[in-house]
Amino acid sequence: MSDSENESSTATSVALTPEFDRYVARVDDDRIPASTSQTFGASWDDLKRGFAQRELWLTLGWQDIKQRYRRSVLGPLWITIATGVMATALGLLYSLLFDIDIKTFLPHVAVGLILWGFIAGCINEGSQVFIANEGLIKQLPSALSVHVYRLVWKQFLFLLHNLAIWLILLAVFQIPVGWEVILAVPGLALLVANGVWVTMFFGIIATRFRDVAPLLESLVQLLFYMTPIVWMDSTLKDRIGDLGNKAYLAEINPLYHYMAIVRGPMINEPVEWRSWLIVCVLTVLGTLFAMIFMRQWRSRVSYWV
């Protein structure tokens, strides 16, 4: 065997040793920069870049409403009419069943339905937000949060349309509102902020696991009856005997507190300070939780849709 063949054989044997493989891997790792796509900084940057593109999602959100009611005479007013009819029907029915003054109960139900429309929309439509925008996600080089802001903005527009019902009830029933009504503004801001993280969280989960969306629809329907919308916790405390002593269990439902901080100032109902505290804590924890999911799986959404 020639010297050249011996050298070649020696080099081959060295290349096949575990020590050589570890050396090559170490050299390669040193040359490859660390990935920054799965960091909290990248998740926060996505939220900031998405918000900076507000001209895009503001336009798309408004366009969604116009497209939904295209060729309709009343257009988005159908949203208000449908909500008003349901609030009136449920308000009259349950006020008779529970023997509650209609002047107190109807505004409670109406504002509750208005807020519930926003909450349910962020959960149900939020679970489909990335699936519905498959084409844009694959073709448009924008932040993933753009689609989340777009949906939350659309739901907020629906809520603003329905506030006309609240104004009508204020005039009809002469509901006294003072400076406390201003507290509804930060309450709405917290509600919108929670809508963002809820949409992002359920959007990512439901995109990966397609059975989550129908499961959420059933869960939202259950939560509707567990949340004081067509019933009042004060009714449980005052009129249902021993069961009234357990009315505090209704406060275990987080949505109870979201309703309270917005609806209370709007219809002149007292709001406990702990409701504000609970909502603020849940907002922070929910945002952090959603950012964890963004850090881990945000980059994979475009492959899942």
UniProtKB/TrEMBL annotation:
GO biological process: lipopolysaccharide transport
Membrane topology summary: Multi-pass membrane protein
Annotated transmembrane regions: 73-93, 105-123, 156-175, 181-205, 212-231, 273-294
Highest taxon in the source lineage: Bacteria
GO cellular component: a single term: plasma membrane
InterPro entries reported for this sequence: ABC2_TM (IPR013525)
Keywords: Cell membrane, Membrane, Transmembrane, Transmembrane helix, Transport
Pfam families recorded: ABC2_membrane (PF01061)
ABC-2 type transporter transmembrane domain mapped to chain residues: 56-264
Compartments, record wording: Cell membrane
Any GO molecular function: ABC-type transporter activity
Family per record: Belongs to the ABC-2 integral membrane protein family.
Name of the featured protein: ABC transporter permease
Organism: Corynebacterium variabile
